[in-house]
């Protein structure tokens, strides 16, 4: 079953605002990834993190791999309407099988004009 | 389009029927994964292939499920004697073995509805 907890579960923000969401686990992860999923589509990879403490940006998105290896954060700056969607964190467990990803339950983002 | 493709995008079937889905990965990717996603949840791992070898199967993959990747390129996922609980989005992903092989790229999914 799922081992990653995401918060918040959903959020409504106004266009132009910054957004923060996080993902936590009781287990240690080797790798963290963030995906965005639109309704009826597959997840799209946004950012991949490979080292504890790593901070990586992709345009208006910034993600960090927590020092404890048990959490990760995603920030979106100056949100726009196309940021609407569900954001999933995913990771590869340190004790898990190579390549298998465990996903969180998602954060639903809605942006109002 | 050089992304992951899946066919069909939607499938409606009656309980007890067999269904088969196809996935074509990104051409140079040698790893291929199947996940299942139910409403309101994140994707859950089902199985994965490295080239034509199936290297891991989840406990979620009951005996009614079988996946193949005969030539190390496209893959099929078959569900026999479908049940209503099989209704879900079935996602395929691919990656390239190497230092960044956890970067899995997903297809658009096949949404299965079992009546």
Describe this structure in words.
The complex is a heterodimer of chains A (113) and B (115). Chain A has no helices and 11 strands. Chain A is mostly beta strands and 113 residues long. In chain A, a hairpin with a 5-residue loop joins strand 7 and strand 8. Chain A is globular, with a radius of gyration of 13 Å. By secondary structure, chain B is mainly β. Chain B is built from no helices and 11 strands. In chain B, the strands form 2 sheets. In chain B, strands 2, 4, 5, 6, 9, 10 and 11 form a 7-stranded mixed beta sheet that branches. In chain B, strands 1-3-8-7 form a 4-stranded antiparallel beta sheet, with no helix packed on it. In chain B, a hairpin with a 2-residue loop joins strand 5 and strand 6. Chain B is globular and about 40 Å long. The N and C termini of chain B lie far apart (33 Å). The mean pLDDT of chain B is 93.
What are its keywords?
heterodimer, A: mainly beta, six-stranded mixed sheet, 56% strand, B: 115 residues, seven-stranded mixed sheet, 0% helix
Helix content of chain A: under 10%
User: What does the average pLDDT of chain B come to?
Assistant: 93
Would you tell me the structural class of the helices and strands of chain A?
mainly beta
For the sheet with most strands of chain B, the description reads: 7 strands, mixed
Please provide the count of β strands of chain A: 11
The percentage of residues in β strands of chain A lies in: over 45%
Which chain pair has the greatest contact?
A-B, 28 and 28 residues
Low-confidence stretches of chain A: none
How much is the average pLDDT of chain A? 91
């Amino acid at each position: 079953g799922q081992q990653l907890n995401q918060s918040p579960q959903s959020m409504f923000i106004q266009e132009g605002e910054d957004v923060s969401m996080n993902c936590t686990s009781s287990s240690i992860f080797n790798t963290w990834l963030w995906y965005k999923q639109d309704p009826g589509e597959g997840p799209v990879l946004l950012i991949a993190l490979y080292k504890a403490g790593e901070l990586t940006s992709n345009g208006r998105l910034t993600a960090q791999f927590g020092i404890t290896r048990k959490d990760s954060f995603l920030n979106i700056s100056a949100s726009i309407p196309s940021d609407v969607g569900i954001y999933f964190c995913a990771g590869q467990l340190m004790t898990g099988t190579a390549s298998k990803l465990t996903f969180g339950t998602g954060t639903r983002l809605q942006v109002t004009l | 389009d050089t992304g992951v493709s899946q066919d069909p995008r939607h499938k409606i079937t009656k309980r007890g029927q067999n269904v088969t889905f196809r996935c074509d990965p990104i051409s140079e990717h040698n790893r291929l994964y199947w996940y299942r996603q139910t409403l309101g949840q994140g994707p859950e791992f089902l199985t994965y292939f490295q080239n034509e070898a199936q290297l891991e199967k989840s406990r979620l993959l009951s005996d009614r499920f079988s996946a193949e990747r005969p030539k190390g390129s496209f893959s099929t996922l078959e569900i026999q004697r479908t049940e209503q609980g099989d209704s879900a989005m079935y996602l395929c992903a691919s990656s390239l073995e190497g230092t960044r092989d956890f970067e899995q790229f997903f297809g658009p999914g096949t949404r299965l509805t079992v009546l």
